[in-house]
Design a protein that fits this description.
The complex is a heterodimer of chains A (107) and B (846). Chain A is mostly beta strands and 107 residues long. Chain A contains no helices and 11 strands. Chain A has strands at residues 5-7, 10-15, 23-29, 32-38, 44-48, 62-63, 67-69, 76-78, 93-94, 96-99, 102-105. Chain B has a 5-stranded parallel beta sheet. The chains are: A mainly beta (107), B alpha/beta (846). Bound molecules: flavin-adenine dinucleotide (FAD), iron/sulfur cluster and FE2/S2 (inorganic) cluster. Chain A: Its EC number is 1.7.1.15.
């Protein structure tokens, strides 16, 4: 797993190429595990790595422009605010951006 | 600390209305409400609605720390269908905004009715001019040995089902355990049982009565309900009690009165409720079974009232919300003087079971009581349908609808409002359509309450329609009508249709193959073929509204495209479900299970040795022989998958896919003394030919060497049975899962080659025509065996050659996914762990 560093603007968790378009990968930022997603349109999103429902691995979920779907029981969460479309507890979302090819997550 | 529902941030649970305290010149009367449940909060709402905020300084004591929530919906929360945040009726902020002091998390211990002061458990007091007791009920816990620990607490693993805290605890337990026993086969018990089952637990219900829901149903109805409940996979034990809980550290099981023991690691007690009357007793008020009140809901102290489940009115106790609403209205009229003569005369109660897959609605009495009562029954036990009505003096006084609740909206209205009944009584139960409108939705007053649970009026529904909600679903979402117990859904639908004046659209997505693209399967397939859409993203771009992709549609589209295009399909990793991305089955702890191919269940010592070596090398926590005669390696870390496949050196068994999986076989003529055909070889041949073929849902096959059926071929998607003389029977649409269905005999053929050809043709027909995730046991009855026979055996549609060709294209496109992706990952980090760092329940090591 990649080494993380802290910048003024957040935690560098890895490089953009680590996350293929349309997929998610899990990283550690500080002592928090986050899932970072790169959508097909290039936009980046980050959430807590464990699903609030039963701890499912969210980085393995499926995505579209609005939501992330957990692979275990298929609850969906909105990128916008982490709220669930299926009546579950919300997921924590984090701001994430690219800096010189690096992924930077703000906790 | 557990979160406060409808609460304020950072543990603020008590709010004071500062203004009056500061200058001390509040001239308003003091209204104190004890109990912040559905009744207490409703009284406050009704009082405020009548302008009571000017008349009264209102203080509400609630033992629960939460705001006010919809207790009815706890069943849905437990089932995972609703989130707890969505059942909040009045948040802490609501109380503050309305100038009501909420003393949340504070219990009232007693009332000094002479000094007119309530004493709370935190040592505080509150004076009142008018006092309302709304303390509700608590779960009745029947005596059983071993139920409590020495410190009087319930044994860990034992739960009541009454509050949000109970529900949260149950949800947490459900995530960790496998076996539940529910004590009580009434409404609440059955809802709890079904909800727990939905979380994957095996559930047994123990009920003391001789039939389920004996409060509402007669024995015949109860017997039919039992069938329906058992067909869902819930085991029911009637006419017996649990006498003992097996412990000692936590629940391990229960012992029944007849001496049998049942394993359980979760025990839910839903054996009834008892009114909470301690405060009233301590304060010297008259209490029988509940707190005794008169028609003005007054106790024997003229300034103390009681409402809701704690109150006993004319000898009756109620355990439902409809009476709560009626009582709250009457009480608010009295308190505020809006109608000083208001009286409550009792409620007629209707109930509905909120269990998916079992429709039960009952109201009033369930059998005739007088010689002159009319009683009409339609009973079809085999279909699980039992309908009855009781009519007295041209008025409906009772109805039971089981298995078919289409008439519930009309009957509820007739029951509640005494609407005129059709002369032909049979019309009460079945539609004998003569074009005449039976239900006068139009005549219903605008302010009449349609949804009792969420308090939605006819007007609110009409407003939603006027505001642009074009479907019943949209109206329900925006008003929450029909989202409580669900008994009013039919009526909501009728009102929406009436209000939209023919402009309603039936939920349009119902007929779509995937939710993200507005097309039925045939149209979708045609468009994909005609426009040459080879990838999932191309399909979204061309066919989805606004080109929007939809996560929940991706897996189904991947499967469909692969079937249509075979080798020409353009794969996109993000369009695949995680199982298909790493070719293994994701487990509840985020690890994977791996099943190597073992055609026809036949293996060799060398393969077994290899599997054993791999299991040791990767410390596989569990090695399991599956029901499909294969060996499952469970608990493999994602990052180890490629190495595991490489070391196994066997092809993938497709245990993870919505696809053809395996052919179970018996030993057949090789060794069995009864064998009439070489079932093992035919199984191997079938598995070889159809390996990896994707389909709308998984497909499991079996071949047996004689009708003794040792490999259970009658209950498979395709089952083949040797019947002697070189002949084989081919059955389709069988199932031995959550529902059990014997397959239908499609044909008897006279060679293994003919079996293979017919199997392929049926599978292709199913692949092209079934809905996403529709198993063959739903597909075959839906399409009809006669039709399937005509199409596949007589080629009535002239498509057999196409079916054969379509299947061949998929077969030609087969490659072993483990071989491919094992060598070079399809995308960077394909096998990178996504497991959270937090500890998760582990797959047990045996
Ligand atoms: C899971 C479930 C499903 C249900 N489904 C349905 C359904 O489908 N249809 C239907 O009609 N009904 C249903 N009910 C019943 C319905 O919820 C009750 O009829 C209704 O909640 C009764 O309201 P209440 O205010 O009298 O009691 P409650 O809602 O129980 O409220 C009483 C409140 O008073 C508080 N309290 C008690 N004593 C004190 C004290 N001394 N000091 C301060 N506070 C106190 C309690 O903590 C509680 O919060 C269901 C109930 C449950 C539990
Ligand atoms: S099904 Fe018939 S042939 Fe096959 S093992 Fe059983 S008895 Fe033998
Ligand atoms: S763990 Fe994510 S949906 Fe259940």
């Amino acid at each position: 797993m990649s080494v993380t560093a802290q910048t003024t603007s957040g935690h560098v968790v890895g490089r953009v190429e680590d996350v293929p378009p349309g997929e998610g990968r899990a990283f550690v930022a500080g002592d928090v595990q986050v899932a970072v997603f790169r959508l097909r349109d290039g936009s980046l999103h980050a959430t807590q790595a464990a699903c609030p429902h039963a701890g499912g691995p969210l980085a393995d979920g499926q995505t579209d422009a609005d939501v992330l779907v957990c692979p275990l029981h298929l609850y969906a969460y909105r990128w916008r605010d982490g709220s669930s479309t299926s009546g579950n507890a919300p997921v924590q979302v984090y701001p994430v951006h690219e800096e010189d090819g690096h992924l930077v997550v703000q906790l | 600390m557990t979160a406060v529902l409808g609460g304020r941030p950072e543990g603020v649970s008590t709010l004071h209305f500062a203004m009056d305290e500061a200058d001390g010149i509040d001239t308003r009367q003091k209204l104190v409400v004890v109990g912040n449940g559905m009744a207490g909060a409703r009284v406050v709402e009704e009082v405020l609605e009548r302008g009571g905020g000017e008349q009264f300084a209102i203080t509400v004591f609630g033992e629960e720390p939460h705001g006010n929530y919809n207790r009815i919906m706890l069943s849905h929360v437990l089932a995972g269908e609703e989130h707890e945040d969505d059942i909040v009726l009045n948040s802490h902020d609501w109380y503050a905004d309305n100038g009501v002091v909420l003393r949340a998390g504070v219990r009232v211990d007693r009332v000094d009715t002479h000094a007119k002061v309530v004493h709370a458990s935190d040592g505080t007091t509150a004076p009142y001019d008018q006092l309302v007791l709304a303390t509700g009920s608590r779960s009745f816990i029947p005596p059983m040995a071993g139920l409590h620990r020495d410190d009087e607490q319930l044994l860990p693993g034992v739960f009541g089902f009454r509050t949000i805290d109970d529900t949260r605890a149950l949800l947490a337990a459900a995530a960790e355990h496998e076996k539940a026993v529910v004590v009580g086969g009434g409404l609440l018990g059955l809802e709890a049982a079904r909800a727990l089952q939905g979380h994957g637990l095996a559930v047994e219900v123990v009920h003391a009565g001789t039939h389920l829901m004996n409060q509402q149903l007669d024995p015949d109805g109860g017997a039919i309900l039992r069938q329906s409940v058992e067909s869902l996979g819930i085991v029911v034990h009637l006419a017996t009690r649990t006498t003992e809980v097996i412990g000692p550290d936590r629940v391990r099981g229960v012992v029944l009165a007849d001496g049998r023991a049942l394993d359980a690691d979760v025990l839910v007690i839903a054996a009834g409720i008892r009114p909470v009357t301690e405060v009233a007793l301590m304060s010297g008020l008259e209490v029988e079974r509940g707190i005794v009140v008169d028609d003005q809901l007054r106790t024997d102290d003229p300034d103390v009232y009681a409402v809701g489940e704690c109150a006993q009115h004319r000898g009756e106790l109620y355990g439902l919300v409809a009476p709560v609403w009626e009582q709250a209205r009457v009480l608010a009229d009295l308190l505020t003087g809006a109608d000083p003569d208001a009286e409550y005369h009792g409620s007629r109660t209707a109930t509905k079971l909120k269990v998916a897959g079992v429709d039960v609605a009952t109201m009033g009495v369930n059998r005739p009581e007088r010689d002159t009562d009319e009683f009409l029954v339609i009973s079809e036990p085999r279909r699980g349908v039992h309908l009855s009505v009781v009519v007295r003096d041209d008025r409906l006084i009772g109805a039971t609808l089981l298995g078919d609740t289409r008439k519930v909206a009309f009957l509820t209205q007739a029951f509640d409002r005494g609407a005129p009944l059709p002369q032909e009584r049979i019309k009460l139960l079945v539609d004998l359509s003569d074009g005449a409108e039976e239900v006068g939705v139009a005549e219903l007053p605008a302010d009449s309450q349609v949804c009792n649970c969420n308090g939605v009026s006819k007007q609110a529904i009409c407003d939603a329609v006027a505001g642009g909600c074009g479907t019943v679903g949209a109206v329900m979402d925006s008003t929450r009508a029909g989202k409580g117990c669900g008994s009013c859904k039919g009526l909501v639908k009728q009102i929406v249709e009436w209000a939209a004046d023919g402009d309603v659209v039936e939920d349009p997505t119902a007929g779509w193959y995937v939710p993200g693209i507005p097309m039925a399967k045939p149209a979708l397939m045609t468009a994909i073929r005609e426009q040459g859409l080879l990838s999932v993203s191309a399909v979204f771009a061309a066919l989805a509204p606004g080109g929007q992709e939809d996560a929940k549609s991706k897996m189904a589209l991947t499967s469909l495209l692969r079937m249509i295009w075979g080798a020409d399909f353009v794969q996109e990793n993000d369009a695949k479900f995680i199982n298909d991305r790493v070719h293994a089955n994701i487990q509840r702890d985020g690890t994977f299970s791996v099943v190597p191919q073992m055609k026809g269940g036949v293996t060799t010592p060398a393969q077994l040795r290899k599997i054993a070596d791999v299991a040791e090398k990767y410390e596989v926590p569990m090695v399991k022989v599956t029901g499909g005669q294969r060996i499952d390696l469970l608990g493999i870390r994602k990052e180890d998958l490629p190495a595991v496949w490489a070391d196994l050196g066997m092809p993938s068994g497709y245990a993870y896919g919505k696809s053809f999986r395996t052919v179970k076989t018996c030993v057949g003529s090789d060794f069995c003394r009864f064998g009439l055909g070489d079932s093992t070889q035919l199984g191997i041949d079938l598995e070889t030919r159809f390996q990896g073929i994707e389909s709308p849902a998984k497909m499991k096959l079996a071949v047996v060497g004689c009708p003794r059926n040792c490999a259970e071929a009658y209950v498979k998607d395709v089952g083949v049975v040797a019947v002697g003389g070189g002949r084989w029977e081919v059955y389709v649409g069988g199932a031995a899962g959550a529902s059990v269905r014997k397959g239908d005999l499609l044909a008897t053929v006279d060679s293994p080659e003919a079996v293979i050809e017919l199997t392929g043709r049926f599978m292709q027909y199913y692949r092209e025509n079934a809905n996403w995730l529709e198993r063959t046991y739903d597909f075959v009855p839906r399409v009809g065996l006669a039709t399937i026979k005509q199409v596949l055996l007589e080629d009535s549609e002239g498509i057999c050659a196409d079916l054969d060709e379509g299947m061949q294209r998929s077969i030609d496109a087969y490659t072993d996914p483990w071989g491919q992706d094992g060598r070079t990952p399809a995308t960077p980090g394909q096998f990178r762990p996504a497991l959270p760092l937090v500890a998760l329940p582990e797959v047990p090591v045996r």
